[in-house]
Amino acid sequence: MGPTDQLNHEAARAADYEIEIRSLSERLERSEEHMARTLMRATRLAQVISVLGNEKDLETTVERAAIELGELFFADIALLILDSDAGLSIAGHWGVAASDLPREPFALPAVEEVTRRKSVRIGPADSVPVPDWLDRYSLRHVAWVRLIVGEKPIGLMLLARRGEEPFEDSEATELRAVAYRVALAIENGLLHDRMKEQLAQLHRAAAADRGARRDAGARRRRTPRRRHARRRGGCLLERRDDRPRRRAGCAVDCRRGR
What we know:
three-stranded antiparallel beta sheet, Beta-Lactamase, 8 strands, 2 domains, alpha+beta
């Protein structure tokens, strides 16, 4: 190998090294960016959990959770969907107009099927079920999360993006962790609402009982009272409405003492 070939070989190797170094630098930069984002999300997640833990009202809890989760995972749309005997209903939403949401209970059998086997399901919108009432939002990437407390499913969470960036596997892990916290906060809100309703029922029952007692007392006061008075002139008197009256068959005018 002549000097020229040697120089060309060294230049090619230097170029390869430069390409490899550039690739490693880009990977390191992406890794650092991902770590920074993960750290920021973990910090923000702790704040969200703290906020949700302080909320007692269910409506406030779900609305706050939808907003915080949408921002936390850089989603364009966030929905919290709760289950009931009547069906599914939207409890909290972010990034979707209220007029585009179903007003009556609905079902999502395809979503129920994919999240039954795996509680977190991420992927492009053309391979993961998306409700038709969200078609106008042109979603490209979707994350469905089943909300579970213990063994009891209480609803679903939807995060969606319209941009090019998909949900990553690391985000799916984080979603699984945050879904438990959100479900627990919602369950606490439901319990708080049930306790308030029971307390209101007790107050109504106590008020009705007091009203019945007052009515009974008023009826007793309106009823003429009869009681025997002392004998006067050998005749037994009756009192009615606090006035002495001669009993029937008495020949003596007791009121006059005759």
